[in-house]
Design a protein that fits this description.
mainly alpha
């Protein structure tokens, strides 16, 4: 867990660097502003996941299996959303490079899956809250697991936000 936490911290710092580069680019080239907005929102995902990884390095004490399973189910929805978002990005890149029309269908399906994963994460978060309230042996564990669930849910929310923002940019909906 310590290695994963350190890796998450490096990735979060790298995301910050991308945001700073995008800001510089957007100041020089206004057409880069949509990319800058997308990267800024994406940085929030990295921030939440880095904090979640950090929380897992703290001493939680023995976690009941049902609580661990509930947290794992929530984390799986975040992973599912991230995988689908990466798929959407790849399809968007393919469309920009002039690949097949099938990329548009795959892109839209991937965005829809990110939204579904976010809704499933909301449900999973509710399950986590219910389980840890009854199973956590002390306030310390309850607090850490609650914060962990909140960070994971926030990451899922941000994934949905960036996927929908990407959809707007790709389809030109509400373009400025």
């Amino acid at each position: 867990l310590a290695r994963a936490g350190a890796r998450a911290q490096r990735w979060e710092h790298r995301a910050d660097e991308f945001v700073n580069q995008a800001r510089t680019l957007a100041r020089r080239w206004p057409r880069a502003q949509p990319l800058q907005r997308l990267l800024t929102s994406s940085d929030d995902i990295a921030d939440n996941l880095e904090e979640a990884a950090f929380l897992l390095t703290l001493p939680l004490g023995p976690v009941m299996p049902v609580s661990a399973a509930a947290i794992r189910a929530l984390a799986e929805q975040v992973v599912r959303g991230a995988e689908e978002y990466l798929k959407a990005l790849d399809c968007a890149r393919g469309m920009q490079q002039g690949r097949s029309r099938g990329d548009l269908d795959e892109f839209l399906a991937a965005v829809d899956e990110v939204v579904r994963a976010e809704h499933a994460a909301d449900d999973a978060t509710r399950r986590v809250k219910a389980v840890i309230l009854t199973e956590s042996p002390d306030f310390r564990q309850l607090s850490l697991l609650s914060d962990l669930a909140r960070r994971l849910e926030d990451a899922a929310d941000q994934l949905m936000h960036v996927a929908l923002t990407l959809r707007v940019q790709v389809l030109g909906e509400g373009a400025e």
